[in-house]
Task: inverse folding
């Protein structure tokens, strides 16, 4: 059990190694290896989920479970003291949902990839590498480790879209790569600023000889170290600078006089530099979420990507953006988080409405669903910006639920595309007559996505709206009209889904004449059932029994909002007071 | 008369006392002479031996540099040279670069078929490495000039190795013209400095102190004139115009050497030049010089990265890539107050491996597969998968993405710049930092072009491409350190620190 999280990360990598060593002709074996790799990952993820104690106190700084911490890279740069990078992984309530989701979608994606014929070896190799880096991203608690996985995600994705994608795949792949790379470069700037400013009190105590090597520090000693640091009595050469994300959340760990210290008083374009840092990280993750106005890579990437890759992209890669905001941007810069709440929430609402309007205008079913993703991820931003318990719970629930439902949506698009090699809405009519089972799943997916009670999407939207409605009183952060406008997003979602349903599936059976030659319209096959049934059941399960997830994430969210609000208010006052002086 | 004799003996004593610290250079000089002499013989057997002899000389130098022991405190050799840890570590890089150049040359068909001047070619590589070592050790303006000229003259001839080709001649001529011009300008600037101070020992703080009385404008102009020579060697803007032509015309191993050796040596020279600026009173008085360097770094970064976007041939692409790396290294030098030397040397080490690896790949592609333009890479990836994956590693490392050494090098440099910014609050540093990081996005766009053609584009012809075993091994050899330096950079960092600490 000691290395359970590492096995979660590296099982797919191991499978990838096996695939790499297999000779080219064993294509079937490669698929089986990839499937067993992801299945094992799922099993371990479920074990972690079951073993996770949802009642334990947690607030981002502490309360991680299944923690593994090993020294990885450590070097000293003369008078600057030591730098340390750790292999530091752990789960809390925020990541547990993402871990479970990654496990589930990873398996579904492999099943969906079963028909891949072109360069099987390369495909499954890249797929498994992608699974490793996504899982690593959700588990990493060291910023360097997180960044490694975060950037390494791009490369397999680039090739998966660029080699196995549709007609404009090269353009979509490079657009995806450049957009998200620029996002991660923003984050890199802040990462550099953070790790040169933050020390690890425990390791510093060890460095100064106040604590034996390998002895864990007591709470009092850590407090003492932090006080000594703030009083400026620790020599710069004794400081151990760290990439640890939990350490960065504690304002007392910032070196006095460093630029990102709350009291640094340094401004950039009349804003405190901490605000600029927050905005950079925020922009970096915003591209990944994606939110309007940096969402334009998403429709292209989705339309060109092969079905299983679209599934992965929508279901788990986008979640890294929201997750990064909760794990990094908000707890490390709570002051800026509180200050910019209206901006974050406003962008969320803008995405909800603009994404829905775009979806309404699309003729391509896949593009419609891509824009519906933009719209739904807007709820994540809105819930998060409210900083209420309901809102943040809702944001995480939305990420989980959208993961399941968007996987289903892209799979159903894949089904029709496999048969007709086309997915233009207007080219089909009355599909329900020929494909009743398929139509049933489309209806389930559409209704789950538009927030019908009984499905997980409903719980998520309900929580987010509750949170953002109560925010003006509870936290004083968001203006009320934001929540009111967001409700219209749900209406629009109903409009674009029902309209698409009506146009494609109901009425007399008809398909566009030119498609008839190639199209072989038949109902779902076994493999497709195998993917869609579990997802539908899960969407229903988490819609009827939300406590399955909320019990696990509740404590962490309560700790998170408390930490962000408390620190945020305190630090905001401090930052603003240094500006006035 | 007696006084003169006494002075002479004193000088000779000083030279002899300092000779020990010049062991690597002496060794290189001996092997250079040996090669030139043996080249006179007509025997085929001897001619075939020459590359190996040159490699032996470089290996011997490398071994001595690895063992160390010859380094010493203070300046030697009539106050001209300084054999400190910095010179020793960079010397290691130069010897390695020389060896890699020979390894690449032995794989190069056109160089192997060269009718005349083959021995000369290898001798000149030794001479170039000798010059690089002298550059890294110089602490005197005249000595710097001579060392740079040694490197330049060797470079001119090496560019012209394949003289029956029109492109080579064009490249050589351009190189000579630009080179002599910049050398002249540099000498002019040096004469100003000598006139103002009566001394050439520019690395001393006292040298700069004595300049405090002079007109600051005069000092700045003189410094800028000198930098014309230095920036030319590292192909920084606005003295980079020779780069694409020379990279297009010179033999591939020589290009690989140009993209690493002289660039590193030039950076070390500038490093020694601005070392006195760590003293706040001096950097305060001559802040214009730092501003000029900052602007030059910024311009080099921007010009290098953006011009690379429009290139159609891999050689020209790499030329502008090397310009952008020069800008990057220049930026690293401006991070006063932080321990930037270790990071710069670390970055240079990574640069050495990724550049040689990439140029080896380009050499194979050009000679065996007839690749001239980027489009010729179309669909070659799946036909030579091993080489394709390895070249992807080089390119990602050049871009600066994890998990490769290039990322680690950039991270260290950026950290230093950030640290320096938080200490001094100079806006220039912040601008450089942000520009440097964001240009990585641009860099990705042009580096990814090669894998883009390799893997994303299709090619109809079916035959598989063969790569010789020795090339495969070499490609792997250059790629391995990139991974190691990402996952365990502390190994190298500790070692560099130890070497630097020896004599500084």
Result:
């Amino acid at each position: 059990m000691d290395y359970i999280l590492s096995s979660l990360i590296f099982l797919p990598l191991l499978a990838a190694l096996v695939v790499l060593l297999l000779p080219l002709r064993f294509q079937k074996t490669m698929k089986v290896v990839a499937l067993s790799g992801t299945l094992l990952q799922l099993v371990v993820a479920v074990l972690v989920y079951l073993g996770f104690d949802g009642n334990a106190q947690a607030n981002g700084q502490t309360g991680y479970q299944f923690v593994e911490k090993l020294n990885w890279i450590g070097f000293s740069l003369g008078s600057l003291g030591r730098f340390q990078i750790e292999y530091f992984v752990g789960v809390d309530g925020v990541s547990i949902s993402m871990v479970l989701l990654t496990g589930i979608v990873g398996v579904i994606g492999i099943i969906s990839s079963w028909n891949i014929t072109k360069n099987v070896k390369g495909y499954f190799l890249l797929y498994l590498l992608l699974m490793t880096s996504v899982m690593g991203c959700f588990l990493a608690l060291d910023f360097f480790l997180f960044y490694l996985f975060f950037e390494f995600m791009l490369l397999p994705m680039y090739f998966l879209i660029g080699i196995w994608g549709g007609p404009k795949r090269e353009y979509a792949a490079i657009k995806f790569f450049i957009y998200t790379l620029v996002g991660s470069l923003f984050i890199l700037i802040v990462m550099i600023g953070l790790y040169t400013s933050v020390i690890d009190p425990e390791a510093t105590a060890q460095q100064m000889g106040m604590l034996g090597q390998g002895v864990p520090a007591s709470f009092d000693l850590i407090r003492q170290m932090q006080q000594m640091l703030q009083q400026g009595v620790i020599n710069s050469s004794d400081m151990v600078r760290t990439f640890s994300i939990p350490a960065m959340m504690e304002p007392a760990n910032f070196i006095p006089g460093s630029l990102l210290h709350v009291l640094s008083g340094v401004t950039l374009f009349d804003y405190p530099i901490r605000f600029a840092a927050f905005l950079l990280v925020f922009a970096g993750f915003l591209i990944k979420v994606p939110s309007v106005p940096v969402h334009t890579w998403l429709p292209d990437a989705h339309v060109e990507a092969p079905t299983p890759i679209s599934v992965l992209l929508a279901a788990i890669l986008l979640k890294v953006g929201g997750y990064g905001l909760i794990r990094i941007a908000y707890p490390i810069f709570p002051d800026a988080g509180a200050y910019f709440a209206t901006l974050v929430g406003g962008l969320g609402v803008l995405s909800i409405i603009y994404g829905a309007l775009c979806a309404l205008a699309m003729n391509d079913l896949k593009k419609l669903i891509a824009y519906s993703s933009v719209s739904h991820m807007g709820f994540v931003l809105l819930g998060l910006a409210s900083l209420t318990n309901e809102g943040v719970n809702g944001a995480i629930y939305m990420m989980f639920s959208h993961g399941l439902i968007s996987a289903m949506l892209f799979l159903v698009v894949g089904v029709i595309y496999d048969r007709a090699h086309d997915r233009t809405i207007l080219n089909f009519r009355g599909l329900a007559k020929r494909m009743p089972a398929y139509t049933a799943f489309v209806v389930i997916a559409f209704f789950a996505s538009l927030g019908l009670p009984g499905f997980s999407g409903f719980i998520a939207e309900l929580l987010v709206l509750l949170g953002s409605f109560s925010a003006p009183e509870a936290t004083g952060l968001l203006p009320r009209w934001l929540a009111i406008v967001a409700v219209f997003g749900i209406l629009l979602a109903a409009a674009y889904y029902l309209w698409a349903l009506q146009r494609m599936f109901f009425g007399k059976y008809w398909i566009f004449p030119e498609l008839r030659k190639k199209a072989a319209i038949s109902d779902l096959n076994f493999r497709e059932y195998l993917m869609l049934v579990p997802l539908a059941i899960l969407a229903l399960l988490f819609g009827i029994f939300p406590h399955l997830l909320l019990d696990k994430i509740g404590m962490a969210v309560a700790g998170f909002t408390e930490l962000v609000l408390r620190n945020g208010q305190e630090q905001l006052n401090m930052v603003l007071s240094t500006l006035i002086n | 008369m007696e006084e003169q004799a006494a002075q002479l003996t004193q000088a000779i004593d000083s030279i002899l006392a300092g000779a020990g610290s010049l062991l690597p250079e002496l060794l290189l000089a001996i092997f250079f002479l040996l090669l030139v002499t043996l080249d006179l013989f007509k025997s085929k057997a001897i001619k075939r031996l020459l590359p190996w002899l040159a490699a032996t000389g470089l290996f011997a130098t490398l071994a001595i540099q690895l063992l160390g022991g010859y380094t010493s405190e203070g300046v030697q050799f009539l106050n001209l040279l300084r054999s400190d840890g910095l010179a020793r570590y960079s010397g290691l890089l130069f010897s390695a670069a020389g060896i890699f150049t020979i390894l690449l040359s032995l794989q190069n068909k056109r160089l192997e078929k060269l009718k005349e001047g083959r021995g000369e070619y290898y001798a000149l590589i030794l001479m170039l490495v000798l010059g690089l070592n002298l550059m890294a050790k110089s602490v005197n303006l005249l000595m710097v000039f001579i060392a740079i000229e040694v490197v330049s003259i060797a470079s001119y001839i090496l560019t012209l190795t394949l003289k029956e080709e029109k492109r080579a001649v064009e490249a050589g001529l351009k190189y000579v013209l630009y080179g002599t011009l910049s050398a002249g300008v540099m000498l002019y600037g040096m004469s100003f400095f000598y006139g103002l101070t009566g001394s050439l020992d520019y690395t001393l703080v006292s040298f700069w102190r004595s300049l405090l009385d002079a007109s600051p404008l005069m000092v700045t102009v003189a410094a800028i004139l000198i930098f014309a020579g230095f920036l030319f060697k590292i192909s920084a803007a606005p003295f980079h115009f020779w780069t694409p032509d020379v990279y297009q015309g010179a033999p591939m191993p020589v290009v690989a050497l140009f993209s690493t050796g002289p660039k590193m040596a030039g950076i070390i020279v500038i490093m020694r030049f601005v070392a006195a600026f760590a003293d706040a009173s001096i950097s305060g008085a001559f802040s214009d010089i730092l501003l000029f360097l900052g602007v030059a770094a910024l311009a080099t970064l921007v010009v290098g990265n953006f011009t690379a976007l429009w290139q159609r041939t891999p050689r020209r692409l790499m030329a502008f890539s090397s310009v952008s790396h020069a800008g990057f290294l220049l930026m690293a030098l401006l991070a006063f107050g932080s321990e930037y030397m270790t990071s710069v040397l670390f970055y240079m080490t990574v640069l050495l491996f990724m550049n040689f690896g990439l140029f080896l790949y380009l050499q194979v592609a050009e000679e065996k597969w007839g690749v001239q333009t980027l489009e010729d890479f179309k669909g070659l990836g799946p036909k030579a998968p091993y080489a394709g994956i390895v070249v992807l590693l080089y390119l990602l490392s050049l871009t600066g993405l994890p998990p490769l050494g290039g990322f680690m090098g950039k991270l260290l440099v950026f950290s230093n710049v950030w640290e320096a910014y938080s200490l001094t609050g100079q806006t220039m540093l912040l601008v450089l930092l942000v520009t440097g990081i964001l240009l990585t996005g641009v860099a990705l766009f042009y580096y990814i072009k090669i894998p883009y053609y390799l893997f994303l584009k299709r090619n109809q012809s079916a035959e598989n491409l063969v790569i010789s075993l020795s090339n495969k091994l070499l490609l792997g050899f250059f790629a391995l350190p990139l991974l190691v330096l990402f996952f365990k950079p502390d190994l190298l960092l500790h070692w560099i620190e130890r070497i630097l600490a020896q004599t500084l």
